[in-house]
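Need Eukaryotic translation initiation factor 4E-1's 3D structure for a figure. Predict it.
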Amino acid sequence: MVVEDPQKSTKEETPNPNADDDLEEGEIAAGGDDDSSSKRSLSLPNQSHPLEHQWTFWFDNPSAKSKQATWGSAMRSIFTFATVEEFWSVYNNIHHPSMLAVGADFHCFKDKIEPKWEDPVCVNGGKWTVIFPKGKSDTSWLNTLLAMIGEQFDHGDEICGAVVSVRAKQDKIALWTKNASNEAAQLSIGKQWKEFLDYNGPMGFIFHDDAKKLERAAKNRYSI
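Structure prediction for Eukaryotic translation initiation factor 4E-1:
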């Protein structure tokens, strides 16, 4: 499925359908200072184009991370979408990676899968990671989202979701998969992802289990 933006022909963008009334510093919502915009209802075209899976956006607020008792406690779901129109209505009204605060992590995962190593679907998985110069990941993040929700991967059932991480000196996009030990599937996903991104640099795959045990010392099991 090619996920085209149905709103490009319109003059006005749809307001953020899922903005909270009490957005914190570093949040993802775009728009002006009028808080009433967060309370407007979702306005979609009459005809909708359902996706094969439902997907959920998650946001890990950097301003709350220092206050959290355990990792991931500041992470919260933002919006679950099931159609092409719902995706674009959200995407067009949130900050892109280059506008997020340093330390932010923005996730898009299949619905019912939490972006955590401990999630039953993710526990035996791993991730491919691509690194970009600071503020240069916007286009690749969008292309990653479109490839995922548009079911462009031959082994799409292996994919859990993706996360873009904004750091002080660089941005990182990681593509999470289910079965890290399935080398053939992981290599296929990695090679296709490089093509979708038109990315020529090195790309490595780390098992979640290695990352949990070895942290920063974890080595790539696969490389392309």
